[in-house]
TrEMBL record:
Membrane topology classification: Multi-pass membrane protein
Keyword Transmembrane helix: yes
Annotated source species: Comamonas guangdongensis
Protein name (record): CDP-diacylglycerol--glycerol-3-phosphate 3-phosphatidyltransferase
Domain of life of the organism encoding this protein: Bacteria
Subcellular location: Membrane
PROSITE patterns: CDP_ALCOHOL_P_TRANSF
Pathway stated in the Swiss-Prot or TrEMBL entry: Phospholipid metabolism; phosphatidylglycerol biosynthesis; phosphatidylglycerol from CDP-diacylglycerol: step 1/2
Pfam families listed in its UniProt record: CDP-OH_P_transf
Sequence similarity: Belongs to the CDP-alcohol phosphatidyltransferase class-I family.
Main location: membrane
InterPro entries in UniProt: CDP-alcohol_PTase-I, CDP-OH_P_trans, CDP-OH_PTrfase_TM_dom, CDP_ALCOHOL_P_TRANSF_CS, Phosphatidylglycerol_P_synth
Enzyme Commission identifier(s): 2.7.8.5
Length: 187
């Protein structure tokens, strides 16, 4: 069950990374680049929901899919953040917080799985809120224009990415607190 529809959708998020980055090197005007990158990010980010739904609906869940799904999400978010830092639309400090947390929590989850305690660091609502804030902030920052004549996506994206950074720290503290009893018992 390696090449299932859900797994292929997950792989599209990884394939999307050089495409989204490449848009900013294309011989297009900045407004067109912003629009294409934003639409691409939204479409590829939506595959995160779709692949999970299809995996459950088609009974095509797999250990490989469970591994690859969060990796693809992290690659897409981290690459987009680096593009935004390069474009000076996101603060490097925000990117360091978000990317650093992703590395730390991924390592924690791997270690907790190794010791048979992965349930203590299972995805929590704080992590889901963090992801939601990121998934709204990033396309807003990629677009970086006024939407519908009312929403300044640059301003909203700026505030939402900082909300995501705060939720990132909060969720990391939460997961570390949940893991602490297991860590102490292994010392």
């Amino acid at each position: 069950m390696f090449l299932t529809i859900p797994t292929l959708l997950t792989c599209t998020r990884i394939v999307a990374i050089p495409l989204i980055v490449g848009v900013f090197y294309a011989p297009l005007d900045q407004t067109t680049r912003n629009l294409i990158a934003t639409l691409m990010f939204i479409v590829f980010a939506a595959t995160d929901w779709l692949d999970g739904y299809l995996a459950r609906k088609l009974n095509q869940t797999s250990a490989f899919g469970a591994f690859l799904d969060p990796v693809a999400d992290k690659f897409l978010v981290c690459a987009s953040l680096l593009v935004l830092v390069h474009l000076q639309r996101a603060d490097v400090f925000v990117a360091l917080i978000i990317i650093g947390r992703e590395i730390a929590i991924s390592a924690l989850r791997e270690w907790m799985a190794h010791i048979g305690a992965s349930k203590s660091v299972a995805v929590h609502m704080i992590g889901k809120l963090k992801t939601m804030a990121q998934m709204v902030a990033i396309p807003f920052l990629l677009y970086d224009k006024v939407l519908f004549g009312v929403i300044d996506t640059g301003v909203w994206g700026h505030w939402l990415i900082w909300v995501a950074a705060v939720l990132t720290v909060w969720s990391m503290i939460y997961y570390l607190q949940k893991a602490l009893p297991e860590i102490r018992s292994r010392l």
